[in-house]
Design brief:
The complex is a heterodimer of chains A (about 100) and B (about 475). Chain A is mostly beta strands. Chain A has a single domain (about 15-95), classed as Ubiquitin-like (UB roll) (Roll). Chain A is built from one helix and eight strands; from the N terminus they run βββαβββββ. The termini of chain A are far apart. Residues about 95-100 of chain A have low confidence and may be disordered. Chain B has about 475 residues and is α/β, with parallel strands linked by helices. Chain B folds into three domains: about 5-115 and about 260-330, FAD/NAD(P)-binding domain; about 120-255, FAD/NAD(P)-binding domain (3-Layer(bba) Sandwich), CATH 3.50.50.60; about 370-430, BFD-like [2Fe-2S]-binding domain (Arc Repressor Mutant, subunit A, Orthogonal Bundle), CATH 1.10.10. In chain B, about 40% of the residues lie in helices and about 20% in strands. Chain B is built from 20 helices and 24 strands. Chain B starts with a strand and ends with a helix. Classes of the chains: A mainly beta (about 100), B alpha/beta (about 475). The interface between A and B is large, with 36 and 46 residues. Strand 1 (about 5-10) of chain A pairs antiparallel with strand 11 (about 145) of chain B.
Chain lengths: ~100, ~475
């Protein structure tokens, strides 16, 4: 179920399914991924490696690295990516790719 | 591989104008930018959204289409989504695009990497739901996403701009918590002469304030003791105003107390920087044209010192004209004739800055925060930690890295560098200039081994 979002979206573009940490969200195709996840109600993007504190987008321009997410085993800035069909996103350090024993 | 006459880094107003001007004089120009479409932060995604939200964002935003249109028609090679991570003398620029690294070479470089929000470390600023005002504006500009229950905190024209835009979008902020005082405005009035030269900016400011006041957005001026409450998410802003404690419950906090030059790339090339007391930040030392002490390396736009979008555009063209002369496409006389009107307009557009800097100064408690406040967001180093390092004899920002890793996380000091300098300077009774700044080395942005392994390298004969 879609969580209530503190953010409002002005327009509705065609949406595609995107998985974030196991939950499926319908996000606007081609939208900025960080913005789309915020608008969909995702409040915590990651937890810091130092203290485990929750973090979410802060600068939205690729400078602060607080919106880091993991896609295909690579940790990337959500604010520098666009929503594509079937994108599978997870919080860094929780994705399958970190399991090197397989 | 083709040798460029000019490589421009950054597709904001300075970069777009420079590339367009340079190609008009016959130069071979490549423009590298991290974003998928031209515009920079000020005109972010203007081509896609001007028609949708131009009425909310205003004419100064939709004007950006003039620059993106000029760039498209110019013959510039515009590499989008290109993240530059190294610039070497000569010049060789390394970047990542579409998951693979690549390199290009050029005889001249123009850094048009713009500004960053001045870090505003207040208690709770790392909580989800706390963003820069610039981030709030980017959400609105590019994505049409608005915070439903936001409090805007800090000072400066950008705070009013986003508040006015939120009003026009039908989602006004819950309050403006402003840190400047009436005394600041009184001091600024000494520079009112310069402000009058920049009267269009004053008119714009008055209009923005009128929009905010008409919408009955509560304003608290001269706020102190600002903190953000919340456990897993921002829940409220607390502050004092006129001796009274206030608390405003909210979901989103947008922080802003000015922007500062993004000096990462320039510092990686050893461009000398000086401390600018008026703007409370380091700025690169440049000549009239934007030329640095490094031969062939130029800087234009907010990365050269904060002047705003129009100044950036003119500075970009001025640098491009100088570079066109350097490669023999313009005579010195042609260069000077073409640059003269631009130099005049740039000076006139810059005239309002001393007034603005004094009227909306940085929030002092966020320049040297209290001990418990995190200053390095990446490594979670507090102001108290930095003071402790100073007590142990640590003199410079670079040395702090050995004590506790500030500036060594993925943002590479972008959001703690100025704070660490200020804290050390205060603790050691030195000036920011004496204290200095982090040493910035490539890679300027993280690059993966996979991206490196996929690298397209220049052919050996071209690289030598």
């Amino acid at each position: 179920m879609k969580p209530a979002s503190p953010f409002l979206e002005l327009e509705g573009n065609p949406k595609v399914p995107v998985t974030f940490d196991g939950d499926v969200f319908e996000l606007p195709l081609g939208a900025n991924l960080a913005a789309a996840l915020l608008a969909a109600g995702v409040q915590v993007f990651r937890h810091t490696p130092v203290s485990g504190a929750p973090r979410a987008p802060f600068c939205m321009m690729g400078a602060c690295f607080d919106c880091l997410v993991e896609i295909d085993g690579v940790v990337r800035q959500a604010c520098m990516l666009e929503v594509t069909q079937g994108l599978c996103v997870s919080r860094p350090g929780t994705g399958e790719a970190t399991d090197a024993t397989e | 591989m083709q040798q460029n006459d000019l490589i421009v880094i950054g597709a904001g107003p300075a970069g777009m104008a420079a590339a367009t001007e340079a190609t008009s004089h016959g130069l071979t120009v490549t423009l590298l930018d991290e974003q998928p479409r031209a515009g920079g932060q000020i005109y972010r995604d203007v081509d896609r959204v001007a028609d949708k939200r131009g009425d909310i964002l205003g004419k100064d935003f939709t004007y950006g289409r003039t620059l993106t249109g000029g760039l498209r028609a110019s013959g510039t090679t515009h590499l989008t989504g290109a993240m530059v991570w190294s610039i070497e003398d000569g010049f060789r620029v390394s970047f990542t695009k579409d998951g693979r690294a690549a390199q290009i070479t050029g005889s001249h470089i123009l850094l048009a990497t713009g500004a960053l929000e001045r870090p505003m470390p207040v208690p709770g600023w790392t909580l989800p739901g706390v963003m820069t005002a610039g981030a709030g504006q980017i959400l609105l500009k590019q994505s049409g996403v608005l915070a439903r229950r936001a409090v805007l905190v800090g000072s400066g024209p950008l705070l009013y701009l986003i508040a006015a835009q939120m009003v026009r979008a039908g989602t006004p902020p819950m309050a403006l918590v402003e840190t400047q005082t009436r005394g600041d405005m009184a001091r600024a009035m000494r520079d009112i002469g310069g402000a009058m030269r920049g009267w269009p900016y004053l008119v714009k400011g008055v209009r923005m304030l009128a929009t905010i006041i008409r919408a009955r957005v509560p304003r608290y001026v001269g706020a102190t003791d600002i903190a953000i409450e919340g456990r897993a998410q921002a829940e409220a802003v607390t502050f004092n105003v006129a001796g009274r404690a206030k608390r405003i419950a909210c979901d989103t906090v947008l922080l802003h107390h000015g922007v500062v030059p993004n000096t990462q790339a320039a510092r990686s090339l050893d461009v000398p920087h000086r401390w600018d007391d008026g703007q409370q930040c380091f700025v690169p030392e440049l000549d009239t044209w934007g030329g640095t002490g490094v031969d062939g390396l130029f800087i234009a736009g907010d990365g050269a010192g904060i002047g705003g979008a129009k100044v950036a555009e003119m500075a970009g063209r001025i640098a491009a004209i100088r570079i066109a002369e350097a490669v023999g496409r313009l005579t010195v006389q042609q260069r000077d004739a073409r640059a003269a009107p631009l130099l005049r307009s740039r000076a006139s557009d810059n005239a309002i800055r001393p007034f603005l800097d004094k009227a909306y100064p940085a929030y002092q408690p966020a320049l040297t925060p209290e001990d418990a406040t995190i200053v390095c967001r990446c490594e979670e180093v507090t102001a108290g930690d930095i003071r402790r390092y100073a007590g142990l004899g640590c003199l410079g920002p670079n040395q702090t890295k050995a004590f506790g890793r500030p500036g060594m996380g993925p943002c590479q000091g972008r959001y703690c560098g100025l704070t660490v300098t200020a804290l050390l300077a205060e603790a050691n009774a030195q000036t920011p200039e004496q204290t200095g700044y982090y040493r910035i080395r490539p890679p300027l942005k993280p690059v993966t081994l996979g991206e490196l392994a996929m690298m397209d390298t220049p052919e050996p004969d071209a690289a030598e």
